[in-house]
Amino acid sequence: MITIYVIWGSTYLAIRFAVQTMPPFLMAGARFLIAGSVLYLIRRSLGDPKPLLKEWRSAAVIGILLLVGGNGGVVWAQQWVASGVAALMVATAPLWMILIDILHPGSRRPHRWAIFGVGFGFIGTIILIDPLQSMSAREPVELIGAGVLVLSSLLWSIGSLYSRRAKLPSSPLLGTGMEMMAGGLGLLFLGILTGEMGRLSLLSISMASWFGWLYLVVFGSWIGFSAYTWLLRSAPTPLVSTYAYVNPIVAVLLGYFLAGELLTIRILISALMVIGSVALISITQQGFFSFKKGRKENGKHDS
Fold first, then answer.
1. What radius of gyration, in Å, describes the C-alpha atoms of the chain?
2. What is the structure's pLDDT at 75?
3. What is the mean pLDDT of residues 266-293?
4. What does 50-111 look like in DSSP terms, one character per residue?
């Protein structure tokens, strides 16, 4: 959880630097295809069995939903939307994940305090975005970019929940490599369809963009995405979804110190709300409230 809290929060700034001189879909496609291929080859060389066709099918669906629909929308929008604002818009993912999880047949309903925590954190992100006034004249919130980011969050949430029940290899890292390969190919294809090949010039790519892209490959893909896919198999949905509330805090702070983005009292207040929601959801998932309730009921029974 610490890995996806901190590292993924920093990837928004890396994306902003990368897309300054790189076409967004081709940049993201190359990132995931290279990272996924290397991870896949390493796991196969270490003895992981060859994936079945149905496992490849599941990995392709997840890769398209998470990386083409989810991450692809983020990198496209960050051509015009600040890294901190992008992270804030993606913070709608926990709300989508819990709502979808509730509607899914046979799913376990989250604790009411977990739902309250998600709502409280979502209100904090609305205050942080301040849609009625916008961040400032320097960093306006582009409505089209914001809409794409919300749609990306929805697709990411659907892919995350689908991956919990999908038929995937027993090795989480092998499955992660397959998902990144499928998503990378999808992003490259999308980049070609949208005419990004005509905009690509290796000689015009800045050093900041290269460093941003390399950071995304190593930290965002190999470390961050691998940790996320493992958590989807091992941790409760509300707890995993809290990354989207911590990431904006990291992104806003890094954007302020490294990219000159805004940091105001309103942002700090809403940040406290976001962190509070994470703490509430985490405590709920660890059984604190159910433990207290059970102890009280046992006391009544003994008396």
1. 20
2. 96
3. 69
4. PPPHHHHHHHHHHHIIIIIIIIHHHHHHTTTS-HHHHHHHHTTHHHHHHHHHHHSTTPPPPP
**Do you know the residue count of the chain?**
303
Contacts for 143 with CB less than 8 Å, ≥ 6 apart: none
3-state secondary structure of 170: coil
Total H helices, total E strands in the chain? 15, 0
Q: Which residue has the tokens 């029974």?
A: 301
On whether the pTM is more than 0.70, the answer is: yes
Measured between alpha carbons, how far is 6 from 156 in angstroms, rounded to an integer? 19
Percent composition of the chain: helix, strand, coil (DSSP 3-state, to 5): 80, 0, 20
Q: pLDDT tens digit string along 154-178?
A: 999 999 889 988 999 999 999 999 9
Token look-up 């941790």 returns 235
200: left (phi over 0), alpha (psi -120 to 50) or beta: beta
Cα separation, 126 vs 92, in Å, equals 10
What end-to-end distance do the CA atoms of the chain give, in Å? 42
What single-letter DSSP state applies at residue 49?
P
* Rama region for 106: left / alpha / beta (φ>0; ψ in -120 to 50; rest): left
What is residue 137's predicted lDDT score, i.e. its pLDDT? 46
Q: Which of 59, 66, 131, 124 is nearest to 95 (CA)?
A: 124
What Cα–Cα distance (Å) separates residue 147 from each residue in 76, 81, 161? 12, 11, 22
Over residues 240-250, the mean pLDDT reads 82
| C-beta of residue 135 within 8 angstroms of C-beta of residue 141 | yes
Note the Cα 96 to chain centre separation in Å.
12
